[in-house]
Every structure is written in structure tokens, then in C-alpha cells.
Amino acid sequence: MPAQQPTTELDARYSSALNPRPGASEVTATAWAEALGRLETAEIFWVSTVRPDGRLHVTPCIAAWHDGVLYFSTGRTEQKAKNLAHDTHCALTTGANSLTDGLDLVVEGRAEPVADRARLEEVITAYETKYGPHITSPEGTFHGIGDSFRSGDAVVFAVTPDTAYGFGRDNGVYSHTRWTF
Known about the structure:
Elements: E1 7-10, H1 32-41, E2 45-50, E3 56-61, E4 63-66, E5 69-75, H2 79-86, E6 89-94, E7 101-113, H3 117-131, H4 133-136, H5 145-151, E8 154-170, E9 173-180
Antiparallel strand pairs: 1-9, 2-3, 2-6, 4-5, 5-8, 6-7, 7-8, 8-9
């Protein structure tokens, strides 16, 4: 099921509102529409899963936002798949690599394998639209990923957000937004 519109709140404890500096008094929560735009265009995400012994496993991946859900994939025998078979809780993160500018995003939820063939085709289309030649061109880094999804060689996971966080930096003015679904 697609995610509903979240409630949005600024967490002043971790925002410039409590650590005054120029521009801090105007700190507001980041709008979900802005965060959504970043999720739709971010090329690299980091997925965090939990191993059966409780240790964390973090690895980069590509992902596509479609119809209120964030999708990523992994090979059936990769550590991510093994971890998610044990514990479906995960987090996907993306953002900027700057101390003073950007918006880092964290999406928390449960990763559920996509079994519905029609939904799988929609996800493939979302990946192809987002990543273009990286997927559609024979020279592309991820060429053939759609066929891998169809054949089941790669497992596609759907993460419907439970909670998401935005850590904004605007010229040194910081904000911490929580979205609850």
C-alpha cells in the first residue's frame, strides 16, 4: 500500500533554533514535498540491515521511489537478503557530503519482497525512468537489472516508510525534521 501523507515536525533540540546563529530564528521543518523530491532524484542510497547476531550491515545501493514506497534490490544470496529474511527492519539513507549545505534523509520501515508481477513491472519502469542509460543501455552499469528482477535472480524489496528524518543544512543553519506516517 502506498504511504499516506506524513505528519511533519521540527525537532528543535537538534536544530539551530536552540543554538542561535544568523538565520537560526527562521528555522522551520523541511516540507515533505522537498524531501520527496530528493528521494525521487537521489542516485545513491545506503541501506542498513541487521544481521541475525545483531550486528549492523550497511551497503550502498540504487533505489527508486514509486507510489509512496522506496524500492531497492539485492541478490538472493547477498548479506542484505539474508539479514532481511531474519529481520525486515531497515533504513535507507541518502544525502549530501557537506557540513554547511544539503539535506540528508533517512527512511525507516520494513522491507517486504515484491511478489506481484504487475507491481514489479511498475518498479522496473520507475528504475528505468530514474536511472536511464545506466539501466537501459547495453553499456550501462546496471544493464539487465530489469531481467534480473523478472527472473528472480535479484529480490526487489518495498520499504513503506514508518518514519523518515531530514537533516538540513542551509549555509550553516541546521534543521532536524521528523515525518511520521
